[in-house]
Design brief:
Blueprint (H helix, E strand, L loop, with lengths): L16 E3 L2 H9 L5 E5 L6 E4 L1 H12 L6 H10 L4 E3 L6 E3 L6 E4 L2 H28 L8
Antiparallel strand pairs: 1-5, 2-3, 2-4, 3-6
Length: about 140
């Protein structure tokens, strides 16, 4: 399976549809999924979307908890109970109701804010990692 990479700014049309980028439709087709599986992201103001790989990840997460456990019930409710499978029409669009293996659908200004915050955190992490690596003994150094 390919992966969903990049980002696209698209608008809802008058009928509440949004185009699924051709590159994303190709990944979904290779994955053997006809349509788009969507659920509200658990930790962001966005929708998570994908195909069989996303469904497999959710299934693995949920079945990792014992049957009838509170965690299993909560994840199942949150991930299956709020999800939909959207059909892609002949022009590559889906109707959004209620608004590496998955993609997110964002309101553009929220995405820009989230991206700016993530970029700053990654820059800080890179500096921290560089400092740790500089303090560590270089590979091949003699004792």
């Amino acid at each position: 399976m390919g992966q969903f990479v990049s980002h696209y700014v698209l608008r809802l049309d008058a009928k509440g549809r949004i185009s699924v980028p051709a590159a994303f439709r190709t990944v979904l087709a290779r994955d053997g999924f006809e349509g788009v599986y969507c659920h509200p992201a658990l930790d962001r103001p966005a929708l998570d979307a994908g195909g069989n790989a996303l469904l497999a990840e959710i299934r693995a997460l949920i079945t990792g908890y014992p049957p009838y456990s509170e965690q299993r019930e909560q994840f199942a409710l949150s991930l299956y109970g709020t999800s939909e499978t959207l059909k892609i029409d002949s022009e590559g669009r889906v109707v959004l109701t209620g608004l590496g293996h998955k993609f997110r659908i964002w309101e553009p200004s929220r995405f820009r804010a989230e991206l700016a915050e993530a970029t700053e955190k990654v820059r800080a992490f890179k500096q921290e990692l560089g400092a740790r690596m500089a303090a560590a003994k270089p590979l091949g150094a003699r004792e």
